[in-house]
Amino acid sequence: MFAKKNLALALCLLMAGCAGSENKPQAQAVVMPAPLVSQAWLDDYEPRLREAIKGSHFELERRDNLLVVTAPVQGSFNPDRPHMLLPITLGPISRVAKLVEHDKNVAVLVLGHADSSGAAASNRELSHERARAFTAIFRLSGLRQDRLLVKGLGSDMPRADNGSAAGRALNRRVEILLTRQDSLKALLAQYSQPAAIPAVAQASPAAKTAKSKPVTGKQVVAAEQAN
Would the keyword Membrane turn up in this protein's UniProt record (predicted)? Predict the structure, then answer.
């Protein structure tokens, strides 16, 4: 008799526990922030990037946990064909692409920027086309979508006053952001919300214009093979 009572009590408690668990709200999934790039990685890559763009009109800066290479539109693109790269640009960008090509932990986000002249939609489209021109060089080096993303921001992120010709020239640029591969989508998400776009540091004076002929597809491939 005593054993039967204990068994009945155990069954009762078990059933009550199960019923209680069914009524409990499901735990919410916790979204962990993207891993940060280590200072050791930044210290290692920064001098290598500086060497890759040495002698060019590109700029390099640390921005929080990123390394950012900035290419001004002036001197990088054909003035008569605004989304066509000049040959002078191929050397430095190909060397940057080669640098990250074999490091599977590194990813690249290419951002195109424009000044505020003209229609906003046209500026965004042009900035995207210019960013894609840089992205093409990285694709030739073997980077795929899981390590390479592109976005045109138009005039959303000025780094100088659009009221002057010099300021507008500074705002027309392409930025190459290097980060960890597992941080790439989170990084892109930051630039997909205009209200939350990170602040941009003031740039150095505009580079001198380099006169050259527009680049062709064959020249892009030749430059990639040479590097």
Answer: yes
